[in-house]
Amino acid sequence: MKFHLWGAKVSIDPKPDLKYLYIEITNRCNLKCEMCFKQYWEDEEGDMDWDLFLKILDDAKEFPDLKMIYFGGIGEPAVHPRFMDMVREVKRRGFALGMSSNGVLLTESILEEFVRLGVDLIYFSMDAIPTASDIIKLGHVTSKVVENRIKTLVRLKEKYKTEKPVIGVEVVATKENYRQLPEMALYLRELGVDSMLVSNLLPMTEEQAKLTVYDGSVDMDPIVRELQRIASGGPFMKIAEFRLRTERYCEFVENNVAVVRWDGEVFPCYRFLHTYPEVIFEREKKVIAHSFGNVKEKNLKDIWMSRDFVWFRFIVRASAYPSCIDCPLNDSCSFVLDTRQDCWGNSPSCGDCLWGRGIILCPIPTEYMGKFL
């Protein structure tokens, strides 16, 4: 493929080099957490059709470097009426399988089948250590529920003498819990958790924005140093940036990720998966879902190697897009109002992406493939 960029000729030889396939099997959820995208987006809810799911798995065979299928996106995978059928089918076909879950619907019998099937990775969300009142202010799932699921998994892994599934916990740092993060890391170590991911809050409203700890209002350096010290004895730890830095690095693009939404639309990352508002350093912005094709109409390999998708990944890898976050004109620029296009002509616009600055993190299983699996 031939492209032109700033007067230079760019030649790209597209390859079927997808490594991580994220499938949003449903965008419904059994909870209604205050800080979730679902409370603010414009999208309809739905479950992935079984035949479409099978078609995606068929398409996945065409990617020789595929390392894992991951049930993720926005929603609780276990809500899907055929969730366990999907788990069994992925493992039957020999794929590694990971997922994110709030844990509420994962009964002991389900967790035991996970262990017997060899499910590879499970990430739970937890933002506080369980207390007597057992309430998380940022959501509606109690820490005690997640603690119970983790203890059950650890016991079952010991029973079956296996290291799978790897157990991860994702923590969203805010002004309400940041002081507790080192204590939480020690607590997760005692539980037997393998990995802890510390991300930041992506605010959808001005009120939520007041809770962020990456805006200079909180000195996170002592917390980070203590987390790094604890990490030397486990769990493995991945920690977000807590200040805006120059470097731009998209983990989705760099690790060759594609995300298939419940309706078959294909996206490069979580950010463009749905349409919703966000607040970027006190500035409101609208993120508009941007798909590169639908697997109902095309083969996933053809979408991955399509001209638009190939060029998008090149632009992101090369950081050939403006840095809107710290641009002195962003208060008066119409391009920063939404993600349709940036002032350099790129569509969609990544110029305000907090994932690209390492401030927002999502589970991407690269570390676990070598370290644990």
UniProtKB/TrEMBL annotation:
Organism: Thermococcus chitonophagus
Record flagged with keyword S-adenosyl-L-methionine: yes
Name of a matching Pfam family: Radical_SAM
Highest rank taxon of the organism: Archaea
Transmembrane segments: none
Radical SAM core domain ranges (all copies): 15-240
Family matches, as InterPro entries: 4Fe4S-binding_SPASM_dom, AdoMet-like_SPASM_containing, Aldolase_TIM, Elp3/MiaA/NifB-like_rSAM, Radical_SAM_PqqE_MftC-like, rSAM, rSAM_sf, W_rSAM_matur
Cofactor(s) this protein cannot do without: [4Fe-4S] cluster
PROSITE patterns given in the database record: RADICAL_SAM
Protein name listed in UniProt: Tungsten cofactor oxidoreducase radical SAM maturase
Keyword Phosphoprotein: no
